[in-house]
Structure formats: structure tokens, C-alpha cells
Amino acid sequence: MFEIVEKKVLGPDIKLFRINAPDIAKKAKPGQFVIIRINETGERIPLTINDFDPRQGTITIVFQEVGKTTILLGRLNSGGFIEDLVGPLGRPTEIEDFGKVVCVGGGVGTAVIYPVTRALYQAGNQVIGIIGARNKDLIICEEEMKAFWHRLLITTDDGSKGIHGFVTDALKKILEEEKIDRVIAIGPPIMMKFVAKTTQLFGVKTIVSLNPIMIDATGMCGVCRVNVGGETKFACVHGPEFDGHKVDFDLLIDRLNQYKEEEKIALSTLQD
Amino acid sequence: MEEKELKTKKKIIPHKTKMPEQPPEERIKNFKEVPLGYSEEQAVEEATRCIQCKNRPCVTGCPVEIDIPDFIALIAQRKFVEAARKMKEKNALPAICGRVCPQEVQCESKCTLGKKFEPVAIGRLERFIADWEREKGMVQIPPRPAPRGKKVAVIGSGPAGLTVAADLAKAGFGVTIFEALHKAGGVLVYGIPEFRLPKAIVQAEVDYVKSLGVEIRLNSVIGNLFTIPELLSSGYDAVFIGIGAGGPMFMNIPGENLSGVYSANEFLTRSNLMKAYLFPEYDTPIKRSRNVAVLGGGNVAMDAARTAIRLGAENVYLVYRRSREEMPARAEEVHHAEEEGIIFKFLTNPTRIIGDENGKVKAMECLRMELGEPDASGRKRPIPIKGSEFIMEVDAVIMALGTNANPLLPSTTPGLALNKWGYIIADEETGATSLKGVYAGGDIVTGAATVILAMGAGRKAARAMEKYLS
Q1: How far apart are CA B455 and CA B64, in angstroms?
Q2: Are strands A126-133 and A45-53 parallel, antiparallel or unpaired?
Q3: Distance separating alpha carbons of residues A51 and A65, to the nearest angstrom
Q4: Which residues pair with residue A241 across a beta bridge?
Q5: Phi, psi of B98 (to 5 degrees)
Q6: How far apart are CA B465 and CA B442, in angstroms?
Q7: Which residue of chain B comes nearest to A225, CA vs CA?
Q8: Does the CB of B283 have a partner CB in chain A at under 8 Å?
Q9: pLDDT digit string (tens) for A250-262?
Q10: B26 vs B337: CA distance, rounded Å
């Protein structure tokens, strides 16, 4: 059992939990994820770690309520417990001084790119941040990240904050104007797909963090297989980060959608 | 001598006492256990078939050397408690072994009675006595030995790990098992289906191991959360690696990443560990497919096929590239699968899986095969028949082609010697690896094998570790 020591509401349906998990907090690195199972009848879902504090022995996760599991998770409160928490899983983000990097966070993916941004900043990179969401209420982590980037651009689909448009619009403009050494993009698959398409035109190495369905997340079941450069990889142990120019995003999206009907059934069983 | 023994005994019943089973037409609609177990009377009847021969060949056929004739004699005398104690001396997990051991190639294959008649049903008696002890609440926790002041870390709570842990705890060592999943039992909980091995029974056996003083830490992925060098420097005096051969194999044919293509590991883990067959009561979903192809011919393929039919499939095809004779599955499993209506497609090899516009499986193309000369495995090599391609309409494909070594732990353990397939190199008699104080056993050493062989390896390693720590 893992205790939730802090709960924050970051936006509509977006919540942050700080969870007591001293062993995981000691080992976690940017880019890694945990598996959560809320209770005895729960499913196992992967959530990328937003932050970790080895001194306090806590890790932080941020999630958007989109299905039964995340809605149930969101109903838990500070002082409550999560049955199972496994991690840190996956390979950490490659962190070094690349020069000038752009970190692109989309929606709740912004929470996940936060530790990556911080580590890249601390490694000496010039960091440009782009965070995007459908509207201003869904823009998260802006304050926390202020200290870790040299420049920040915000985009919203409806123009309610920052640039009216997509993250790719802002990114394209930067790529046209200056030399970028690396782009890291974390967000919905469709966003990462178009970020990768955009950067490919400029030949800029682009890392994306994939979020396929997982069960054990230790390389045993193979449900998280993705196609990277024509090869099948398991996102849980070979990733979750891959070269965005080599990822077959359409396959990822198809595989993410394969339980849509069951997700609806699960949601319908949820009591208010 | 044995012949004489057979002659001197009067009136030997030639056949095993039948064990009642759920009829096929009923059981394909539920996940309850198929064989129902002996009653006391049936067990006594079967136990009296044992002639108590002098040289006890059955014991040599048992990887954990259970004193088989002794516990059978006690059953024949209706001394059930004593029979259970006798068995537990050598086997901490009898309710499991009685169900999933391939007795026909182990103890029962050596039975003296088997020379003329059917052998004694040792497996059924083992299961009976373990179930009797548990159901009657007679499970006795052996007295704790004096602590030896040394600690052992066991990685993996499958059959090998549980055996090592039980043996070393009984010898007075402090034992902690680290398990990656949220439930202990390894393949016994994620792999073997409920209808072959009820999970409540696994839980009871795990609880027994815990009652010996073993601590089990769930949700602990060694290699990530802690490494072996860290365990050794943080108070553990020795480590046993029993992580199984976890990685799934695929065929490398086009279309195998389509939605609806599963590894047997995924399909069985969803159903068994996550209880997806109870969806939506349990949150993990599983597709209720209509036409399912299971690729492979081993026990795991049978488990997957029999799970698919219980999930309501109209047709479940077991697609195997060789013929019936070469199938590695136990005869009993094949028999049960056939009874349940699984359609066997022998000498058939898939060449590609075909998807629809949403990336979902809709068909599979196969080639017919014929058998040629025996290959390195000793089995006749399947050779494709040119131009024999045909299409099977399926909406799910389950690959039960075996497993490979999961590199997650070895890759974080410097100096741990592996063979060319990534399995850990360990001494056959002691389980000793290339690292001092680090032992290994089970599938991560041998490649996919049986529960009882993993337990046998655990037993040997425990003995060696005890010596090492003394």
C-alpha cells in the first residue's frame, strides 16, 4: 500500500498526487514511469513520473481522468492509499549537453516533460519550452518549469492563451529561425507524430515518449510492442523513449484504440 | 524381485481409480477446475493399489524426492494427517505439484505396477492429501528453527523461488522474496489458468511458505528498484535468481503487431493474473473473439486455447506446424482440449496475418507442411508444401511459441555469466553462478521447462546455499 501524501487539482480533470514511495524515489530518473493498480479488481496502467524527491521519499504523478481507472484514481484523496505501485520502469531519458534543445509538452504530457526539462537545463543546455493544450485551463506546470527554461512558448488550440495554434506551429517557427540540436516531445500520440514530421523536415533528432497499453511492464507480455525503424520493440523495457522519426505512430494509435468498446463498458459500471 | 512382488500380491486392480471431472459441455462455460479430486474412499482405494515394493523406483523419478511409498502407505491406513506431514517434509507445494506435474514421465513412469498395469495414480494421491490437509484446516506450521543470523534474497516467487525460500527458512535463514508483480506465485498465477490450478490454492501454498517466516515483497522489480550488487551490499548474504524465462516469442511474420494478436503471455496474464475473464467486475478487459487461432503445440498453447473457448469463442483452432506425435504438450492436456472442442490444425504454418482498415486481425494466411528428416531436436522437420497457401478467417491470433530469457535483471548484474541465448549459466548440481554468493535455477537457467523441474533446481540450490552460508 502506498500513501497519497498530497493531492492537487491542476486543471479540469487533471490531478497531481505526491505518493510515499521511498525506494522508488531513490532510484527514479527523468523519463521513467511507474505502474499503478488502484485496488484488488483494478487494471495495471503506466504513468510517467512527474517528479521524485529522494529526501522526502516521494514521487509525483500527474494524470488526466479519461477512463474508469484514472477517474477512480482521481477520487482518492490525500491520506488515501494506492494498492500497488511498481517502478521505476523503463529506460531514463538520455541527458547530456546537446546544445540548444526544444522540449515540447502537450496536454498532460507537459507534466512528464518537466523532469526532462529540468535535467537538460541542469546539464547545461539552452532550453526552449513549448507547451500546448486545447485551452488555457489545460495548461499545466507553467510555474514549476519557469526556472528550467530559457524561453517559453505557450500554444492553445482555441487561442485562449499564448499563440493560437498547435505546438507544431510554434516549433516550426523556431526551427526555421535557429539551429536546434535536439527536440524532445511528450504528449498525445497524434501530437508526437506531427512534431516528428515537422522536425524531420529540418533533420533535427527528436525523442518521443510512447504510452502504449501495458500489463506487467517488465518485458514479459509484449502488449506494448511498437514498431521503431521496422523493428518490433517493447516500450516498457526498450523505451518508453524512442527516435520519433522511426516510430510508426499509426500502429501505436491503432493499438491504443483496440479496447475502446471495453473502455466504454468499464466506464458505464462506474458509480457516482 | 519386482516381478515376484507383483506375483505374490493378490488381486491387483489393473486401472487407476477414476477421478471425477466436470463434463466438457459444462466446463467450457466456466473457469472452475476440471478434475474434481478424489474422495477419501477413492484415495484409500487407490493407495491400496501400491504394492510397497522394496526398491521404490518412483522416488528416483521425483525431482524433489518425495517419500512416495511412505505417504501412500499412510493414506491406505487412513492416516491422512501423517501422510500430509510426510509429504511436506520434501515438498512445500504439494497441492500445486499434484495438479501440474507431468507424473507420466516422472514418478508414475517408474512405478513397478506400471510394468503390467496402470501405475499408481501418485499425482492424484498427492493432490488429494494436500487438499485434504488444507480443507480440513490441518496445515501445520513446522516449529521455527534457531535463527542462523544470515539473510538470503530470493528474486522471483515462482516454483523455484518458493522452494528455495521454504527450504532455507526451514533451515533457519532469514529469507526475503522479491516479486515484480502484485501477486506472488510467478507462472503459477500469471500463466497457468484457474481451471487447471485454482489461484486460491496457489495463495494457500504461498501463505504456507510465508508461515515458515519468509517475507514476500511484491511490486519489486529487481534490476530497477534494487540491483543484485545492492542487495549483497545491503545485508543479504546470498541471492537466488528464479525469475523464469519471461520474454514472449513472436514469429516475425507480417501483421503480428495488429490488434488481436497476442503473445500467450499477454493473453494468459490478462485472464489469469488480472482476471479479465471476469470483466467488467475486474477492470482489465479481454476481447471476446469468435474465431481464435492459437499457434504452438505445447502446454501453454493448450492453456491458451482452452481459455479462449471459455471466453466464448465459436471456433478455436490450434495451429501446429508438425503432427500430433511431435506435440510437446502433455497427453492429458491434449485430451482435455479435444474434449472441449478445440480444432487441431496439424502440419500448418502461418505465413502472415491480415488486418482490416482499423488495424484489427481479420484473417491469417497459412501454408501446409509435410514432415521430413528429424532435425536437431530429434523431431521430424516440417517442410512447406509449395503453393499450398490458404486463408483462415480469424479475429484473434495467440502466439504460444515458447519464451526467451528476459534481459532486465542480467543486464544490471555485472559479471553474471550468460549463455548465447541469454540464460544464466549455473552449475547443475548447486545452481552456483559466476558470481560468489549468487545462485540461479528454474527457467532462467534451463529455458522453459516444468514447475517441478524448477522446484528441483530450487531444492538443489537451497542445499548448496546452506552449505555456502554455514
Answers
A1: 7
A2: unpaired
A3: 19
A4: A209
A5: -60, -20
A6: 15
A7: B257
A8: yes
A9: 999 999 999 999 9
A10: 14
